[in-house]
Amino acid sequence: MTDFPFLLAMIAVPAVGAAVVAALPRGRELLAKQVTLGITLVVFLLAVLATIAFDAGGDRFQLTTSVSWIPDFGVDFALGVDGIALVMLLLVGVLVPVVVVASWRDTPPGNRSMTTFCAWLLLLEAMMVGVFAATDVFLFYVFFEAMLVPMYFLIGSFGGPRRQYAAVKFFLYSLVGGLIMLAAVIGLYVVSSSELGEGTFAFDALRQIEIDPGVQKLLFLGFFIAFAIKAPLVPFHTWLPDSGAEAPIGGSVLLVGVLDKVGTFGFIRYCLPLFPDASRDLAPLVLVLAVAGILYAALLAMGQSDMKRLVSYTSIAHFGFIALGIFAFTTEAATGAVLYMVNHGIATGLLFLVVGMLIARGGSRQIGDYGGMATQAPLLAGVFLVAGLASLALPGTNSFVSEFLVLIGSFPTVPVYAILATVGIILAALYVLLMYQRTMHGPARGVLLTDDGTAAPGGSTATAGSTTTGGATASGGGPATGGSTATLTAPAPGRLRVRDLGRRELAVAAPMVALIIALGFYPQPLIDLIEPAVAATMEDVGADPGGVEPATTEGTD
Amino acid sequence: MLTAADAIQAPSLSLGALAPLLFVFGAACIGVLVEAFAPRDVRHPVQVAVALVGTLGGLVTTLLLAGDRTVTAAGALAVDGAAIFLQATIAGLGALSILLFAERALDPARSTFVAAAAVPAGSPRDRELLTAERVQTEVYPLATFAIGGMMLFVASNDLLIMFVALEVLSLPLYLICGLARRRRLLSQEAAVKYFLLGAFASAFFLYGLALVYGSTGSIRFSDIRESAGAGGTDVLLVLGLALLIVGLMFKASVAPFHAWTPDVYQGAPTPVTAFMAACTKVAAFGAILRLLYVAFGTSEWTWRPLVYGIAIVSMVVGAVLGLTQTDLKRMLAYSSIAHAGFLLTGVIGFGGGADGQSSGLGGTMFYLLAYGLTTLGAFAVLTLVRDGDGEATHLSQWAGLARRSPLTAAVMGLFLLALAGIPLTSGFTGKFAVFRAAIDDGAWPLVVVALLASAVAAFYYLRVLVLMYFSEPAADGPTVGVPGLPTTIVLAVTVTATVVLGVVPGAVLDLAEQAARFVG
């Protein structure tokens, strides 16, 4: 069974599926969605089987496949995973089917077809698997750039009112980063050809060559800027709030949950092992950016009135934690960082999804347009609370484990940064709980008030003009839904026309909530997968694993 | 065996090595005869057939020559790997252009070319002819002559032949630029502008030729190479080289010698623009490569700083000025200027190998092939989108095209992504090849500039994508014509090539790499 090319299948199945779905005739949207869901579930199954076939104590890269692709450039189509990549593949496998179900009843703007949405989604999934599974730097770069195209169309065709601006901004930022990385990729190739006699892009070979420190710094910066834009770290972050806010909910989940992780994944997979000296020399720079991001993005998040922008800013803060963990150079912190990559995908993914459910009901992204939802939609409020608590890393939720590992692991080597980052936790509690409190508690108010014409004329009519109806709004929970409105025809003032979570929405939320709690109490299986790969990386970078040995064992309890 | 003939020895001609040229020029001459003797109603199909047979024959014979390395015609022609690869590229792209010329299904008057070019624009006779199905068929022999000239250009092994080839390829081009059926004044203006500036550039080339001859005493590349390698700083030689470069860069539409490009690209009939953008660029770069690598390969210092600077100017001008364009043909013209700069980064990646082999040469040749096919396809798509006044090339008219015609938009989208150099398209492979060669040669600052210019240029390609896909269609938007067989073939070939050269470029790259050898 281990001979089965899982990784190739995980790329080929969705890629072929995308072509099949795209070829379906117009008007067969239901069939397209069913096929898409089926394919994504197959990919999930493959990811699980790949995890079973993976031996955590075995070689660094497993499930490898390699065929020569462009011999002239020395490029192989080489796939393989270590523990870090594997957990990211699991995350992809979980998130994409959830997104498909969550987008089930979206109506795209301008009578576009959901068939197209599904096709781009599947293509994106193939690219995401490829980018994590590539063990050839050139192949990684190809997936890294090609991934932009489906996401660009997802944002630009199916997003909110300012989707054109957001899509172009997303594409250009990523492209600039990618092109700078391309220069470094070629530079790396040239270095390898002078060191080894023959140019190569194979990760394993590149890892072993000694590069002149000056050249190393330049190459490191080339890769780093690309990843820092992708992740994003603070001075490069301005595209994310726009894209996160304008993308359709499903797109936002994948954008923040997976695509941006390619940046942090790149730090740990490429920057550290390939350029160990430069990584150590320039680590203070990265740490400053990381901690600045944690604090600055948290402050900005508190100031947002748009929920999707707020969640995007919280992610920037979380990416700061991840970068801190990676560049603290201890196995423990880096393990925490990788675990954080998974947990953040789940927690923020759920937060985006639940915000999307809220927007589907009210048609507005503004926090001020909602209030007092908890009394009439307790399930919605409950899921919102769980997602929020997971985001602020409450003990018992999954994020706590990873955040704690990052902080405790970075304290011995970079205490000042660790202490400053701790302040971010307090800020996180503030921005999440304030949003929760304003939308879910207090008196009923906002756009969902039944008597919105008379009771709150100023509030709701003003917002109706200025606020933005999310591009892909679900029709199901909208204010015009017949059944629930009929029962509330003569309400007391202050009643909300709102329906609690439906079965489909529960099916979206339930697995995510389950994961948040399960990984909060028992993260060990994931840590077992991640830790050997992280330890190997730390060995590459020459960090002293001995110095953090006690903490490592303690952290994995 | 001594005879009187020894006194005037006829140069030995290797007919096999000359076969592609003979094929194409032969077809052009037959085309002239057809024009004179064939009755008008059969002229068009016959001309198309002759031109296609000529160019495809040229393509097939070059392919049969693959691997040949000869210097023939008393050392005037070098038929080597690079020449054969570039000749095949020109012949293939030329055949595709001829197909675009032959399209009769799109324009209501059944051709994009004017019925009678000599009739003054706007006169009653002209208005009468506007809807006539008559068409001027001289365009086929003219284009075939131009293709022949281009193929000669890339194989020329001395400066005089190069100059003759330059004129043979240029004169027909000047003419066919003025043959548009619609917007005739714009077209004629383009032809005159191209002619005047082109003549100026030819004069530069000729003056440079004279100075180089004055300095080295020879027009033969191998002799120039020897003198240039042996001598120290010879002002005449360097000055001559600079003038030669100016002449060639003009043809390649490299900034700062690009001023004609946007106007001519916009005014010329779109199939002719496609032809110029694809074939002329290949031919001009073929000549640049041969001049710099063969004649001045041992004195790299004479041209390297100049080309380095020109490459940066061209990339920046193409990328930045392209941002301000509102007409698609002008936009693609600036894109062509930017791409000329990228190609020059490949030229810089010369590697200094004395045996005339370098990764820069192979990479540049691959880039030329990839770019030629993509840009030809992009212009072919432009011919499809029309309103009452011919092609709708204003950007705003393309809004919401994807809704109206998803397939056309998808094809155009692919070409735009390839021009922007997104991976899995031919444009990326080409860029990678030339940038690798340049970095290999230590020119990494140039590559960084090139990458930043790519990012800037990507913005205007994206703008078209945004318009086509994310904008609401305009109420009185253009119609998308159903292409006839010729344009369909062109689109099929270019789309396939753009994808194949992006996804599995190995074989063609290998071919270019093996062909990357000069003799002489």
Which features does this protein show?
heterodimer; A: 557 residues; mainly alpha; two-stranded antiparallel ribbon; globular; disordered C terminus; B: 520 residues; three-stranded antiparallel β-sheet; two-stranded antiparallel sheet; 20 helices; 5 strands; membrane (chain B); quinone binding (chain B); EC 7.1.1.- (chain B)
Provide a quick synopsis of the model.
Chain B: It holds the Pfam family Proton_antipo_M. The complex is a heterodimer of chains A (557) and B (520). Chain A is mainly alpha-helical and 557 residues long.
Describe the structure.
The complex is a heterodimer of chains A (557) and B (520). By secondary structure, chain A is mainly α. Chain A has helices at 6-23, 29-53, 83-102, 114-133, 137-146, 148-158, 163-196, 203-208, 213-230, 239-246, 249-259, 261-274, 276-302, 307-326, 331-362, 378-391, 398-410, 415-440, 457-466, 482-487, 503-521, 524-541, 549-555, and strands spanning 62-70, 75-81, 106-107, 473-474. In chain A, the strands form two sheets. In chain A, strands 1-2 form a two-stranded antiparallel sheet. In chain A, strands 3-4 form a two-stranded antiparallel sheet. The longest helix of chain A has 34 residues, at 163-196. Chain B has 20 helices and five strands. Chain B has helices at 15-37, 40-65, 81-101, 124-130, 139-155, 159-177, 184-216, 221-230, 235-251, 260-267, 270-295, 304-322, 328-348, 359-384, 401-404, 406-420, 426-440, 444-470, 485-503, 506-515, and strands spanning 70-72, 77-79, 385-387, 390-391, 479-480. In chain B, a hairpin with a 4-residue loop joins strand 1 (70-72) and strand 2. The longest helix of chain B has 33 residues, at 184-216. Chain A binds chain B through residues 68-73, 110, 141-143, 145-146, 148-149, 152-153, 156-157, 163-164, 167-168, 171-172, 175-176, 179-180, 182-183, 186-187, 189-190, 193, and chain B through 403, 417, 420, 422-424, 428-429, 432-433, 435-436, 439-440, 444, 447-448, 451-452, 454-455, 458-459, 462-463, 465-466, 469-472, 504-506, 509-510, 513. Chain A: This is NADH-quinone oxidoreductase subunit M.
